[in-house]
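Per reviewer request, we include the raw input and output of the structure prediction for the construct analysed in the revised manuscript.
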Amino acid sequence: MNISFEIVPRSLHAFDEQYTFVQKLDDGINLINVPDIQRFEIRSWELSAQVDRNKYRFIPHFRAIDFKIENGELHRIIEMYQLDSVLLVTGDPPEGLKRAYYNTDVVDLIRDLRNHFPLLNIYAGFDPHRKGLLDECDYIQRKADAGATGFFSQPFYDHRLIDIYIEHMEGLETYIGISPITSLASMNYWEVKNRVKFPKDFRPDYDWNVEFANRVIATAGAAGANVYFMPIRIDLERYFEGIKLR
């Protein structure tokens, strides 16, 4: 089983701090994911040199709306930074329209990269909360048909939903998202912004989230799936001291 850790590039110093923490987890983590967030100056792929790629697989995220397929810019980035893995997401339009963006469909971008880079590891995202189950599964299949060989999910909080998606994703390299929520404010954000429906037993505290993560790791391992940690504004030491990575 693979375990991925997402490091948000708020600044080079913040990235280095979290990367140093990941290294303290020994061999529990073997992938580093870096999202590309419009409001930050650092682009995901620019951090390739900051990661020991002999120890970790480096997977930068790319937002489809930032690239025009016809101009080949994404091809040049992949070649320049010698990337062997990418994660493609649709992306939200930039705030205040400070950057140009395009109406590029992520499925079309997946297809283009697969045609141009036959050996590239192309990952896509899926969101169990965005649409109905059938619509999301159909969208996953469209991305797989276009050339995506693996998927990273938005975080789950209901184990019953994980079981359904793991069954549907059979044959695809799948990473089940885990993002601890340890405050009511964060819980409310996920409910309103990301349309998460929490189970009745959910509690926004460390104990519930640690127990849930360990259960997800066990389930993913038994099913041949993987896990994807997205720690946001938490005490990393406090949280990961209770996580059973192996």
